[in-house]
Amino acid sequence: MKIASFNINNVNKRLPNLLSWLAAERPDVVCLQELKAEDQAFPLAAIEAAGYRAVWRIAGDADPAGEGPAAILINRAQQAGIDAITLSPRLGDFNQDQRLLGVDALRAASGFRSRQTTLRFMGLAA
């Protein structure tokens, strides 16, 4: 399985670059960061035409301040035809997770991977 991370820094402005890269590299999974697009402006049709589907990862603390916004984002994603995966902290909130479990545990739980970590995972860098 080929997994790639792409800091797109505005998916609509760089959509031609993304589509050309997807066609050339054909990763199984692509994690896009820095989309800088409202959900209605996300180029879902172009992504699907390239053979991919969109999934949003939404993190929210296990309290009303985190659950409310997460529910809104999940609803917006569903309205836009995008699947949503909700991440929850292990200890109640992500700040507490970081303090007590450490930043590496928080990164593992959130799925955050730097480009270097992704390349190491894929066996492309030492």
From TrEMBL:
Membrane spanning residue stretches: none
Keyword Transport among UniProt keywords: no
Protein name: Exonuclease III-like protein
Gene Ontology MF annotations: DNA binding; double-stranded DNA 3'-5' DNA exonuclease activity; endonuclease activity
Keywords assigned by UniProt, alphabetized: Exonuclease, Hydrolase, Nuclease
Endonuclease/exonuclease/phosphatase domain mapped to chain residues: 4-96
GO biological process: DNA repair
Lineage: Bacteria, Pseudomonadati, Pseudomonadota, Alphaproteobacteria, Hyphomicrobiales
Organism for this UniProt entry: Methylocella silvestris (strain DSM 15510 / CIP 108128 / LMG 27833 / NCIMB 13906 / BL2)
